[in-house]
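USER: Study each token:
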Amino acid sequence: MYGAYGQIATRADGKIQCHECGRWWVNLGGHITRSHEMTVREYKLAYGLPLDRGLSSEHLREQRADQMRHVMAGPDGERRRQLGREHAGEGAGAREPGMVSRGTGFRPEGHAERVAASLAGRVPPVVCAVCGSEFRPANRETRTCSGRCWSALVSRQMRRRRRDPVRDAEIRELRARGLTMREIGQQVGLSVRGVAYILRRDS
């Protein structure tokens, strides 16, 4: 495995090493989604990385911070500060009565239903990984239609993680040949996290 579990390896030039392929990147998050077909969240969970830790080099973070400071010093900065004050509550009197706070943004009542209706004809439904019924989730990464199916999926995945000497040896062999954890998971019927768990458990 490239890099230690739970740690992010960096070079003197600020680049970050990918745990999947061992290559070095300025923006590791973009590489993960393009090359390994994983979300950043899946990658962090698979390798024990903190979810609040960014995957960009220090140089890139400083460059983006400089760009934002430049924007805030310009004519657009005051508009952004005003929006921030309104979202923080200083401009509450100017909001419509039907607006509902969701984090730092505001959505009118019934917004989610209208979005779901507008997407119904354009976005294909998702098939529940447990019961096979079709549903339209708000988050396209959702794999189950209900909490009951989600619990069943988790239980099934935990049973699959139990020790199987033949399968576990195959996973180690595939990893030694350079396959990514997603490719291994597709071959043996496990999730990326399941493969990572077995590799970490047997190391």
